[in-house]
Amino acid sequence: ESNIYDLIFSSSCYLSENIRLADDGSAFWSTIVFDLDGDERDVYFDQNGADLSIIEIIVQATTTPSGTFQLMDSIVCSIFKIEGGAIQLNDQSIRVETFRVSDYTDPISLSSSHIYLSDRFVVTGGTNMLDASSATIYMDGEDTRFDGALNTYRKVEVVREASDTQIRGITNFDSLVLRGIVEIRDNNAVADLVVIPGTRLELRVGDTLFIDNSLILAGTSERAIEFYSSTPGDTAHISMSSGTVDGSYLVMQGINAF
């Protein structure tokens, strides 16, 4: 296990063994690359990562088999990028601007982690290799995007009412909680959808939002919920074959419900 101290204004750091990062008050990392070469990497961030200034964390694999990345503490960084290797987040929380997974073939487990995003959550490739069945993802920014790429997510919640969010990627959600201005693209499926009063929800024309269990669109007289298709005069669809609906103070236009 390595201990790194007094690493100041480094442009990048390549790590290929177990690592413990600690801050003496002046540490700064631009990019940390974890290269998985067939072994398991246990990664610790002292002080829950709160005092570490990290811009970008990249996990990659240059060999086959690739190895495993084990996150052992919570972290705060600007970008968390997964480009290869098996990933275990071990119920740790991540506060990040962008969480990106690209073209992977190894299993990734978000476990019961809480991931707080202020910008983007993007997954490309690796259908059903991402296990988010126990994780919670919070979209906590003024302008956020979620692209889940054919995977299933336990819970995604838009946190801010004064926000603009786009959700896409033919994604399955067990629970989806929406606030602010939300645009939904592609044919997504949701077991339980909750739309908070005052929300404006927009579905792209021609797409279908599938609801499997419950739909709550309970606005108030002061804060109605607006539900529109993306193009006036054209139709988007919402499909619910069974379950419960709670709707009040709801303005709908261009939405075909069946």
What fraction of the residues are assigned to beta strands by DSSP?
A: over 45%
Q: Please state the overall shape, judged from the principal axes of the Cα atoms.
A: elongated
Give the rounded overall mean pLDDT. 83
SSE pattern: EEEEEEEEEEEEEEEEEEEEEEEEEE
Report on the architecture of this protein.
- The chain is mainly beta and 258 residues long.
- Helices cover 0% and strands 59% of the residues.
- The protein is built from no helices and 26 strands.
- It has strands spanning 2-4, 13-15, 19-21, 28-36, 40-45, 53-61, 68-71, 75-82, 86-88, 94-102, 108-109, 114-124, 130-139, 143-147, 152-158, 164-168, 172-178, 181-184, 189-195, 200-203, 208-218, 225-229, 236-240, 244-248, 250-253, 255-257.
- It has a 26-stranded parallel sheet that branches.
- The protein starts with a strand and ends with a strand.
Descriptive tags:
26 strands, 258 residues, mainly beta, 26-stranded parallel sheet
Characterize this entry briefly.
This protein is mainly beta. It has strands at residues 2-4, 13-15, 19-21, 28-36, 40-45, 53-61, 68-71, 75-82, 86-88, 94-102, 108-109, 114-124, 130-139, 143-147, 152-158, 164-168, 172-178, 181-184, 189-195, 200-203, 208-218, 225-229, 236-240, 244-248, 250-253, 255-257.
